[in-house]
Structure to design on (729 residues):
């Protein structure tokens, strides 16, 4: 598979390596270019016309450009890229000098794409209309046919721009998505132990006839042991965009633990035994008549364990090749500049005899991958005043491009065409109905009577999932019904559907998945609809987050709030439970993150109890959670005490007493607050049981200069913001 990590630019082309095969490369040109036809002429046409008289709308003429752009490279570029890659393989020792390599230079397999075309003001005073498909072919060179209609002023400006030096003011901005493998993570655990022993023994016996004998013995012995152990990331993977950093770090720690465990097991099996001391007895050598003896013994024992893990992941990569196109004057073919006269026509619009048109024809299909032998295309045109003009071609490669040209003969240039598809190993053929077009023709895979689909494992966690059984069905409701079943495992991650249906594929397919879990359970996902040619089978679980927030007076009235949550998905026989407790000294809020199979299915309900400091317990009845935020706790009466209107040049001190009573629910609560000049606003909070009873009693005392005291209340009020103001003197 294409490796995103192995990317470089050679000869203006982005070159990706393969994650397994060193001979496989994927080439992606970095610049959009004009398409060059096999004869060496650009696939470009420009018509400038004028009216002999000025029309009522003021239009004197205009221009029309029809061309194709592509992400292509020249054969010379490919040969240079091949040479650079072969030379590198030789330097790396994978090829011997002079030995050629069978390199496969392919293009990435594109999953989706789109093209936005911009020319001058795109629909303003210079350009009247742009016609272009929203998506490129996704095969071959990703060619896109573009038509631009200019006003009379725009035609003149475009002609000079396309003939000049610099850019043409045409942009074809590609957005392409392809599949590739992430840069791998690489962790290695290493342990090595070694023992070394060297022993040397020298004996010299000098026997004399007329003197005393000499005897000398020297012994040198050295024993050493060493041990090294290390676990390290060779390449520490970065967290994918949007991933939870904490969760990703836990995953890396789990990998490290796995390496450490495996390393410990390997060490147990490979512990070195001690090297025994060397025997110093040389009596047997002496018995053989040796007087001088030198013995040298070296012994070495080495043991090592290496544990490595390499993990990577398949992702979708989005690229945006630069889309600015140069002027045709700067384009060369085989070293020669483009002849402007080959691509421009100046026409008197009132002379219909000379009016002509051209249509480019190609088949955008991977003939090597599909069961298609060839496609025969027949096209004809007959204007009201001329003879019929017809042509037939056979296409067997996506790069094949043919052109139909004819005089308009008083007509509008709409041609009639049909095509015949011959399949490999099939006697039957598919013949299209008679169709019409006025623009360049690209026949795509879905129009060739083939159901093409690649079923690929996406982000399935095979640590939890043993296998996934996939059913894919195509039913056009008119006689074609094909059903395929596959089993996806960690070892078999991709299946291809290449079915001849002898009709244009114009309906989506349906698919269903049953997951077989490691714990023996099964999860069946309801049928879904799929468009396109790529079907990714992802993990059955999604994460849902519910935020729990509490309210109430934990300082004086509430001891603990207990909550029990139950998520129940009866359709999938899946259930999750969670219990939480909230208190003054503990947590006051918490998020519950749990897996679900269908984020639109299942119900989340909760029950609980509120334990007050009085010992009383108030149950919380079972209720369903609506949304993803749950507020729990008793009703609260909260009053903000604002002293802003007190004139502190006259008032030295103030006290305010607030009381709340609900005899039916046995609630009686009062508090007194002392207010000074620099005292911040106070908040009075009371837990209540009857949310309709929100009135309370207030009384205030103001201590003025000179020992004067003023009192207000008691008054029954319901203000949630209580503004203190002394009475007028």
């Amino acid at each position: 598979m294409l490796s995103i990590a192995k990317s470089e630019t050679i000869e203006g082309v982005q070159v990706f390596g393969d994650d397994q095969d060193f001979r496989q490369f994927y080439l992606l040109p970095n610049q959009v270019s004009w398409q060059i036809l096999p004869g060496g002429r650009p696939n470009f046409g420009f018509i400038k016309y004028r009216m002999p008289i000025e029309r009522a709308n003021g239009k004197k003429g205009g221009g029309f450009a029809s061309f194709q752009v592509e992400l292509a490279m020249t054969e010379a570029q490919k040969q240079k890229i091949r040479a650079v890659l072969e030379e590198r393989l030789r330097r790396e020792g994978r090829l011997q000098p002079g030995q050629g390599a069978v390199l496969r230079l392919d293009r990435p397999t594109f999953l989706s794409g789109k093209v936005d075309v911009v020319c001058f003001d795109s629909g303003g005073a210079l350009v009247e209309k742009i016609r272009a498909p929203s998506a490129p072919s996704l095969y071959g060179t990703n060619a896109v046919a573009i038509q631009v209609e200019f006003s009379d002023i725009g035609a003149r400006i475009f002609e000079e721009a396309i003939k000049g030096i610099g850019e043409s003011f045409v942009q074809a901005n590609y957005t392409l998505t392809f599949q590739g493998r992430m840069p791998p993570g690489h962790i290695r655990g290493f342990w090595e132990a070694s023992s070394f022993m060297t022993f040397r023994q020298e004996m010299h016996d000098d026997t004399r006839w007329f003197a005393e004998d000499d005897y000398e013995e020297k012994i040198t012995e050295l024993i050493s042991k060493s041990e090294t152990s290390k676990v390290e990331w060779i390449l520490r993977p970065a967290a994918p965009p949007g991933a939870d950093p904490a969760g990703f770090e836990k995953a890396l720690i789990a990998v490290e633990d796995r390496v450490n465990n495996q390393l410990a097991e390997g060490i147990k099996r490979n512990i070195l035994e001690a090297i025994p001391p060397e025997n110093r007895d040389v009596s047997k050598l002496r018995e053989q008549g040796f007087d001088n003896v030198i013995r040298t013994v070296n012994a070495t024992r080495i043991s090592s364990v290496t544990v490595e893990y390499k993990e990577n992941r398949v992702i979708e990569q989005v690229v945006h090749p630069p889309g600015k196109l140069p002027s045709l004057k700067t384009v060369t073919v085989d070293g020669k500049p483009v002849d402007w006269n080959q691509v421009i026509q100046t026409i008197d619009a009132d002379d219909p005899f000379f009016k002509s048109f051209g249509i480019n024809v190609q088949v955008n299909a991977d003939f090597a991958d599909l069961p298609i032998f060839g496609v025969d295309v027949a096209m004809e045109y007959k204007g009201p005043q001329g003879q019929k003009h017809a042509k037939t071609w056979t296409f067997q490669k996506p790069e094949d491009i043919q052109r139909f040209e004819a005089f308009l003969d008083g007509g509008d240039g709409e041609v009639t065409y049909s095509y015949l598809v011959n399949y490999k190993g099939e006697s039957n053929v598919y013949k299209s109905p008679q169709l019409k077009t006025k623009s360049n023709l690209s026949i795509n895979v879905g129009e060739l009577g083939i159901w093409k689909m690649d079923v690929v494992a996406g982000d399935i966690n095979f640590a939890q999932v043993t296998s996934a059984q996939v059913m894919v069905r195509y039913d056009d409701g008119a006689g074609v019904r094909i059903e395929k079943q596959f089993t996806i495992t960690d070892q078999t991650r991709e299946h291809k559907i290449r079915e001849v249906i002898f009709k244009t594929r114009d309906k989506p397919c349906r698919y269903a998945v049953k997951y077989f879990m490691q714990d023996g359970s099964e999860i069946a996902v309801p049928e879904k609809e799929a468009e396109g040619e790529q079907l990714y089978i992802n993990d059955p679980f999604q994460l849902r987050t519910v935020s729990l927030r509490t309210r109430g007076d934990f300082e004086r009235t509430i001891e603990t709030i207990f909550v029990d949550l139950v998520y129940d998905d009866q359709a999938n026989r899946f259930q999750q439970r969670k219990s939480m407790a909230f208190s003054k000294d503990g947590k006051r809020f918490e998020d519950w993150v749990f897996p679900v199979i269908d984020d639109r299915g299942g119900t989340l309900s909760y029950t609980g109890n509120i334990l007050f400091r009085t010992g009383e317990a108030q149950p919380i009845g079972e209720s369903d959670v609506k949304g993803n935020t749950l507020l729990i706790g008793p009703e609260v009466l909260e009053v903000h005490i604002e002293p802003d209107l007190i004139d502190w040049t006259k008032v030295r001190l103030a006290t305010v007493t607030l009381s709340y009573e609900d005899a039916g629910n046995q609630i009686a609560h009062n508090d007194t607050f002392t207010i000074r000049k620099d005292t911040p606003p106070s908040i009075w909070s009371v837990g209540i049981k009857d949310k309709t009873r929100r009135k309370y009693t207030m009384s205030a005392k103001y201590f003025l200069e000179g020992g004067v005291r003023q009192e207000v209340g008691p008054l029954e009020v319901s203000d949630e913001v209580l503004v203190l103001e002394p009475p007028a003197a």
About this structure: Confidence is low (pLDDT under 50) at residues 240-244. The helical segments are 75-91, 152-163, 245-269, 283-287.
